[in-house]
Amino acid sequence: MRYPQGGGLTAERREFRERLRLEAAERFERGETNTVIAKELRVSARSVQRWRRAWAEGGLRALNSSGPASLPRLSDEQFAQLERELAKGPAVHGWEDQRWTLGRIKTVIGRRFHLTYTLQGVRKLLVRNGWSCQVPARRALERDDEAVTGWVKETWPCAEDSRRPVEHGSSSRTRPVSP
Hints:
The chain is an all-alpha fold and 179 residues long. It is 53% helix and 0% strand.
């Protein structure tokens, strides 16, 4: 299952789901049917079937939470260091333009922390820590924002008024508008 933030379940959510599975196990022992359990616990019947199979094969231990899917490889302190490195900009790390790509961030992680990540792993790491993909505005470094603002206020209105007035015409190419 995918989650919008790219990470897994929080500890609270894992505990909640484990409690649901253990509640279902008590109901299995009482002989309740899957559909009744699913309806009362507000889960899918398919999930209850899966839980019943696991319970039959391994007992209550099979329904316990196995913990988070994976632990982050960078600690919070290391991620803070990575953020400081990213704040310095790509030029400090040897790239000529001012764009951070997943590949470049992967390289910085490798150089700084001696860890290898896949591009998807880098993306998930960033999303999990509140970063989002941004497309840079394509602007020249020499751009003068004040000159652009002045042009929009002074020159553009004159250019906008110089258009031909709109006239009603004919949809026929061979017959002009008749009176």
